[in-house]
Amino acid sequence: MTSTATSFDLDRLRAAPQIRELRYFDSIDSTNSAALAAARERAAECPALFLTPQQTAGRGRGANRWHSDQGALTFSLLLTPPAELARAHWSKLAITTAVAICRLLDRRAPAARSGIRWPNDVYSDGRKIAGILVEAPAVSEGPPQVVIGVGLNVNNSLAAAPTDVQARAIALTDLVGKSVDLTATLLELLFDIETDLARLAAQHRSLADDWKTRCLLRGSTVTLEHGPRQVRGYCHGIDDDASLLLDSGRGAERFYAGVLLAIE
């Protein structure tokens, strides 16, 4: 099977050293849901890749939804984290994956400015190009597992989308002016994710430096919804522990989760 701008070479993917099992769906509501179900049943060999060219009801954080069109990369990785990666560091999995996506974009579209919009989005030239959702299945037996869901706009160009959509989102093909090999892009990203998860497990200082450097909110005034609170403050960036540092006039506060309401 050959790879095209909208299809995958499944044989190449099955041979990838980063995965032990591939589950491919022509269309599915959510790859994360499929991965979570497999985890609960202990029915997949990890690392397992759940992949589809068309996701109809993908989930984002909170009530957000991620719908993918043909040409996008929409997948979930079901992993058994290494023993050295303590649960205390699982909160950094989304931002670590965001770093991996940024490194891929830096190579593929070096003229674009790609960075992280905390807590789990990647933007290129001011528009959203990728989203990440990390979920841990509730399992009572066996080693803990985690699901990393990724939606990355690749060949699903936004050039013909309504003006308001073009202002918010972009695809890799729009950045480079041509279609790219979807399978090669996925394999490259799987390698980057594997590399950065290893850096996280080893607590390499360089990883935190990467997400600090790539923070797109630093220097902005941000309004954040955190539980019942709304906090408006100056953003000092992302700290070593992946928290967002906001100063609302009473000194910097750390936020490990929240919904961005406004950026000034």
Write up what this structure looks like.
The chain is an alpha+beta fold. The chain has 2 domains: 204 residues, BirA Bifunctional Protein, domain 2 (2-Layer Sandwich), CATH 3.30.930; 43 residues, SH3 type barrels. 26% of the residues lie in helices and 28% in strands. The protein contains 7 helices and 14 strands. It has a 7-stranded mixed sheet, with helices on both faces. The protein has a 5-stranded antiparallel sheet with strand order 13-12-11-10-14, with no helix packed on it. The chain has a two-stranded antiparallel ribbon with strand order 3-4. Helix 2 links the parallel strand 1 and strand 2.
Report, as a whole number of angstroms, the end-to-end distance: 48 Å
Radius of gyration: 18 Å
Percent of residues in helices comes to 25-40%
Shape: globular
Query: In CATH terms, what is the fold-level topology of the largest domain?
Result: BirA Bifunctional Protein, domain 2
Along the chain, the helix and strand elements come as: HEHEEEEHEEEEHHHHEEEEE
Low-pLDDT windows of residues: none
User: How many strand units?
Assistant: 14
Mean pLDDT: 92
Strand order of the largest sheet: 1-2-5-9-8-7-6
Number of domains: 2
Strand content: 25-35%
Q: What's the oligomerization state?
A: single chain
Broad structural category: alpha+beta
Number of distinct helices: 7
Q: What summary fits the major beta sheet?
A: 7 strands, mixed
CATH class of the largest domain: Alpha Beta
